[in-house]
């Protein structure tokens, strides 16, 4: 039987040793652990972590984060790890995130009622060595340019993110959604991890990093208003953000996109990304 433990401050190195070789599917776990450690006081990016040990080494892990998302890296002993972390965290599960097969297994362990599911999508996981980034001509030739978000962009970025969540994740446009989205955008602004692409001084697309490490970044929050799509703006925005990351010494980028989202797959593959696995995100409806 594995030794199942709740991780405590001081366990970071052994968790890092397990996650680092699996970085492409562990960005949320690694990024949050490095930024906030293993102490959970319910603040943003904090979480409770559980792990299965064999011969004094971690072989599976999961985290229950402040926002209710359960993030998985448990190729074995998943039921035991999921039960341990959800019990210790004591918070309602609001989402499941991780390798597709593991998310399906966790769904069964938790007995999730399909009627409570707001969004469920299996996605393709892509990676790119930033040395191999292919820069779109429009960006290379200066027909479009990108910059990091500034405080005066807060209202626009909040509105765009709300629209993205309503369209992509089927969320209901409510004051609560707008407030939560604004807080998320403010955190991205403070970390310098949101970009705007501009053409003739007008914002036309946006991208962000939803997890960042010294060695890798995870692309997310890619959005172009419907009336401006099919013009290559999104791929230029992503490329611009990755050029910045490469200049900081980052070596790899990771992203995931819907299995049926052919335009996005084509755009990312044109930048040099390659498909390496499958990921799944499940979001549950907020408790009423």
Question: Would you spell out the secondary-structure blueprint of this structure?
Answer:
Elements: E1 3-6, H1 12-19, H2 27-36, E2 47-54, E3 57-65, E4 69-73, H3 78-89, E5 95-99, H4 100-110, E6 117-129, H5 137-140, E7 145-148, H6 154-169, H7 175-191, E8 194-199, E9 202-212, E10 216-223, H8 233-247, E11 252-258, H9 262-270, E12 274-284
Parallel strand pairs: 4-5, 10-11
Antiparallel strand pairs: 1-2, 2-3, 3-4, 5-12, 6-11, 6-12, 7-8, 8-9, 9-10
What does this structure look like?
This protein is 35% helix and 32% strand. It has 288 residues and is an alpha+beta fold. It has 2 domains: 3-112, Gcn5-related N-acetyltransferase (GNAT) (Aminopeptidase, 3-Layer(aba) Sandwich); 127-277, Gcn5-related N-acetyltransferase (GNAT) (Aminopeptidase, 3-Layer(aba) Sandwich), CATH 3.40.630. Helix 3 packs across helix 4. The longest helix has 17 residues, at 175-191.
How do you describe this structure in short?
With 288 residues, the protein is α+β, with helices and mostly antiparallel strands.
Radius of gyration: 19 Å
Strand order of the largest sheet: 1-2-3-4-5-12-6-11-10-9-8-7
- Tally the helices: 9
- What can be said about the biggest beta sheet? 12 strands, mixed
At CATH's second level, what is the architecture of the largest domain? 3-Layer(aba) Sandwich
Shape: globular
Average the pLDDT over all residues and give the rounded result: 95
CATH class of the largest domain: Alpha Beta
Category by helix and strand content:
alpha+beta
Which fold name corresponds to the CATH topology of the largest domain? Aminopeptidase
Termini separation comes to 39 Å
Question: Helix-strand pattern, N to C?
Answer: EHHEEEHEHEHEHHEEEHEHE
Strand content bin: 25-35%
């Amino acid at each position: 039987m594995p030794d199942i433990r709740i991780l405590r401050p001081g366990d970071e190195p052994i968790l890092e040793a397990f996650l680092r070789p699996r970085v492409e599917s562990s960005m949320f776990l690694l990024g949050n652990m490095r930024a906030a450690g293993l102490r959970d006081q319910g603040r943003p990016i904090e979480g409770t972590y559980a792990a299965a040990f064999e011969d004094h080494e971690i072989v599976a892990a999961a985290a229950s984060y402040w926002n209710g998302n359960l993030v998985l890296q448990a190729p074995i002993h998943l039921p035991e790890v999921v039960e341990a972390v959800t019990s210790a965290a004591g918070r309602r599960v609001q989402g499941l995130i991780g390798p597709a097969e593991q998310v399906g297994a966790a769904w069964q362990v938790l007995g999730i009622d399909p009627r409570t599911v707001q969004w469920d999508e299996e996605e393709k996981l892509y990676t790119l060595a930033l040395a191999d980034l292919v820069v779109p001509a429009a960006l290379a030739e200066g027909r479009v340019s990108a910059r990091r978000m500034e405080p005066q962009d807060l209202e626009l970025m909040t509105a765009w993110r709300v629209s993205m969540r309503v369209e992509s994740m089927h969320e209901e446009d409510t004051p609560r959604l707008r407030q939560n989205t604004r807080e998320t955008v403010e955190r991205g602004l403070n970390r310098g991890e949101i970009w705007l692409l501009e053409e003739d001084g007008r914002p036309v697309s946006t991208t962000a990093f939803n997890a960042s490490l010294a060695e890798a970044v995870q692309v997310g929050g890619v959005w172009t208003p419907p009336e401006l799509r099919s013009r290559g703006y999104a791929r230029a925005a992503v490329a611009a953000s990755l050029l910045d990351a490469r200049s900081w010494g980052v070596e790899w980028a990771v992203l995931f996109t819907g299995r049926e989202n052919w335009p996005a797959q084509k755009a990312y593959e044109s930048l040099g990304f390659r498909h390496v696995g499958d990921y799944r995100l499940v979001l549950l409806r907020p408790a009423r």
